[in-house]
């Protein structure tokens, strides 16, 4: 069965219409996919930073608030995380009082990085976590 010229024109119009509709939708679809990738990266970083703050607070508590032990614990966790690195991390330790036994030690971990899939207005993000523990040793190391 042969097609008439009129049927050929209708088929060409339908093909052109599909191409225009695809061009209109592809931008929105790609932005949604990139946004999902960015949300995943943000969730992974948030989990890792929280774990780093908890591990660093624990290390501070059992080491008598030694900064090197705190940095070491945070470094291990941040370097083991997916897409996180200790190089982009800031660790701050604050003792309540003179860093004596049973004083509170607060660890603040902040991580800042670029998104994997950069979108307009959303190219960087920062995640921060805080953990507090009671010291088990004095700063001098005595129980």
Automatic annotation (TrEMBL):
<keyword id="KW-1133">Transmembrane helix</keyword>
<dbReference type="Pfam" id="PF07811">
    <property type="entry name" value="TadE"/>
</dbReference>
<protein>
    <submittedName>
        <fullName>Pilus assembly protein</fullName>
    </submittedName>
</protein>
<keyword id="KW-0812">Transmembrane</keyword>
<keyword id="KW-0472">Membrane</keyword>
<dbReference type="InterPro" id="IPR012495">
    <property type="entry name" value="TadE-like_dom"/>
</dbReference>
<feature type="domain" description="TadE-like">
    <location>
        <begin position="16"/>
        <end position="57"/>
    </location>
</feature>
<feature type="transmembrane region" description="Helical">
    <location>
        <begin position="22"/>
        <end position="44"/>
    </location>
</feature>
